[in-house]
Amino acid sequence: MSTNVSTEEMEEIMEGFQKVDVDSNGYITASELGDLFREVGMALPGYKIREILQKLDRDNDSHINLEEFTAIFKDLKNDKMAQSFKVALNKKEGILAIGGTSEISSEGTQHSISEQERIAFANYINLSLEKDPDCQHVLPINPETEALFKAVADGIILCKLINLSVPDTIDERTINKKKLTPFTTQENLNLALNSASAIGCQVVNIGAQDLKEGKPHLVLGLLWQIIKIGLFADIELSRNEAIAALLEEGESLEELMKLSPEELLLRWANFHLKKVGMSISNFSGDIKDSKAYFHLLEQIAPDGSKEDAPRVEIDMSGLYEKDLTKRAEHMLHQADRLGCRQFVSAFDVVTGNSKLNMAFVATLFNKHPALTKPEDQDWNLESETREERTFRNWMNSLGVNPHVHHIYGDLQDAMVILQLYDRIKVPVDWDSRVNLPPFKTTGGGHLKKIENCNYAVELGKTKAGFSLVGIGGEDLFNGNSTLTLALVWQLMRRYTLNVLENLGDGEVAGDDLIVSWVNKTLAEAGKSSSIKSFKDKGIGTSLPVLDLIDAIQPESVNFELVQTGSLSDEDKLSNAKYAISMARKIGAKVYALPEDLVEVNPKMVMTIFACLMGRGMKRA
């Protein structure tokens, strides 16, 4: 990435990229470009879209990635193609220029936000948290003003939303709720950001101060990530076996599992629309006339066969309304009867805001999937393990492209693994050793992926010094779970230890150094606990972790909430939940889960103590 781009410009560039990359897969396609130009009344023929894509696509992979997108912004003055692209981006309906011109940027950078998203997210928060006693000081949020950006400034709403999306992520006991000061507000925002990272949100470019100041583009970006994780949680085969009804002829269950939630949502909508001879290819241009939505609602409405879901007859008369906005309003009235009028207004439908329409369709799926698990299918689906989930969230929090949904399928071409090498400061020869996507589905496409996997293993052995005995490129390509996780763990371990670079007086950061530091810090603070290793059974009580947190930030732990003595499994889990949240609250970016502490999982225990050591060394 060019060093000539300021921080403010980079924020604008990333924001613009996310607006066009509506499926959040990390690159812009011809379809997304076409949707953008259509939305702003500049519909272009297919050949023209391809011409623009070819001009802006500098590595000729038929996609525009973030680096190319950044180059487009830099070259606007000399590139007419890029200028037309920027004009389209700025004209996109629903975008407001806010905040005036940045004083910091000599280029006169201006941030823009989606008014539609602000309204949708404010309404979602009002509905979701209306009965929460801890949020009454800011609810209801007026969606017509910028009140949303002030409402998140103390961190409470963000913490609550994270727990809505992934229950029990944050221990409620660690949220500061009364008589907030600048310091306790900072703690809440630390807790929210580190917890968001732990559930897979990318927060690399967001700081507590940004949220305190209510920077709109950063607030909206974070809110969307948190909300989306919750919306998509059950759009996964291992959590909802009825999704197997979406299997197409000749398709294996494994192939269906590899589809992203966005792809599954589209598959689901078309599964129902097929019954009336319809289909859609996106949640933007194809839904603007509300016809697909009317028919989808009719197909998924309860028919009265279940006791807890009385029959709902969808009134289709609104389908014949000629005014598109009025037609959309009629459609949303019917969606309201199904309890699903969320995220979109009639304006959002007619203008084809794909992000909000995707959220609307996800709501329809979650409440009325109308799917039945095929009876002739006999399989034993394994849910994602804790370890797999932790690794996946860690990778996604670093902003890898594509976003990792299915850990083995999405690592198959090694592109994500190679990006992780970059993150741990192991140089990757992108120019001559890496085959870039898209990969052909026939011919030599799989060979290109295997070459990447071989290179990933080679880098681990020769440059990173990993122990990869018995691991070959084909193991990664074939999704061998044990061997793939062995490599990913070593990447995560190195990433964690990199936090401790230059902190050990010249010593190489490793297990012994961390254990020694932990015990020294505990002793100096007058704590009675200590650890022998990361397998120490005493860690299962979480007391050494809580003592260490209190040693790093004195009087931060409320020991009245901590269970001591002879502990039941329930007591240990309660302590672990409190310890993990407290670690995040004082600024340690912990990815491990409470269960890892209770079970004394040495790998994850190491990451907890290493992150706390990194946080503790900063105060010295």
What does this structure look like?
The chain is an all-alpha fold. It contains 29 helices and 2 strands. It has a two-stranded antiparallel ribbon. Strand 1 (95-101) and strand 2 form a beta hairpin. The longest helix is centred in the C-terminal third of the chain and has 18 residues, at 445-462. Residues 92-112 have low confidence and may be disordered.
Spatially, the strands of the biggest sheet line up as: 1-2
Helical proportion?
Answer: 40-55%
List low-pLDDT spans: 92-112
Sheet with the most strands? 2 strands, antiparallel
Count the DSSP helices.
Answer: 29
Question: Roughly how many Å is the radius of gyration?
Answer: 25 Å
Please state the overall shape, judged from the principal axes of the Cα atoms.
globular
Care to count the β-strands? 2
User: Could you tell me how far the N terminus lies from the C terminus, measured between alpha carbons in angstroms?
Assistant: 33 Å
Class inferred from helices and paired strands: mainly alpha
Strand content: under 5%
Average pLDDT over all residues: 86
Task: Quickly list its features.
620 residues, mainly alpha, two-stranded antiparallel sheet, 29 helices, 2 strands, 52% helix
Set out the fold topology.
Layout lengths: L6 H14 L9 H10 L6 H11 L9 H9 L5 H12 L3 E7 L8 E5 H15 L17 H5 L4 H10 L16 H17 L9 H5 L3 H17 L20 H5 L3 H13 L17 H10 L23 H14 L8 H6 L2 H14 L18 H12 L9 H4 L4 H9 L6 H4 L11 H18 L10 H5 L3 H18 L12 H14 L18 H10 L16 H17 L8 H5 L3 H17 L2
Antiparallel strand pairs: 1-2
